[in-house]
Amino acid sequence: MQNNLLIYHDFIAGIVEAMDARDPYTSSHSTRVSELTEQICRLLKLEKKRAETIHIAAHLHDIGKLGVPDAVLTKATTLTKDEWKIMKGHSEIGFQILKKIAGFHEIAEIVLHHHEKWNGAGYPDGLKGEEIPFGSRIIMLADSIDAMLSERIYRKAMSVACCRAEIERNIGIMYDPEIAGIILDHWDVFSGTFPYGAEK
Ligand SMILES: [Fe+2]
Ligand SMILES: [Fe+2]
Predict the structure, then answer these.
(1) Counted domains in the chain
(2) Which of 67, 135, 138, 179 lies at a 20 to 30 A Cα distance from 118?
């Protein structure tokens, strides 16, 4: 089944794009994260099949938000402690959805851990360093980059230069030093592929 992942690609991308449209501020988020992930896999010179698996996982990383009520997902003000708990549940919900699909076990694991931080302070399991699946470590970076460079209801988008500085500052804290290091070494080429407007 894993060999046929690409057959599902357009279907998955379309469904997830429709799902993201629930919240105008995150619309196309998963598509952009999948594009950034693809570029990172290219910089890391990953083998094709591995890169494809991680790319599909990137499209699906927030699929569990299907289980988060609109009142929490699109809330314009700060979330309460209980609302945060519900929001954080999206990685586990995504895992539960995906693990039932034949051939998607690895993708389900990557999705489950896409909010783990290198220093162990992430969720849901507080995994540390190389305990975190490699694909999840890549998506953590792509997801953060998209969050920084996109406008939110409560704040403006960050500049590309500030985004670079933030990645550098969080090496070994949020991000895998090796992956983040390669991204920073190739920053000009990488940022040239960003799916954002030219105003940055
Ligand atoms: Fe997420
Ligand atoms: Fe995300």
Answers:
(1) 1
(2) 67
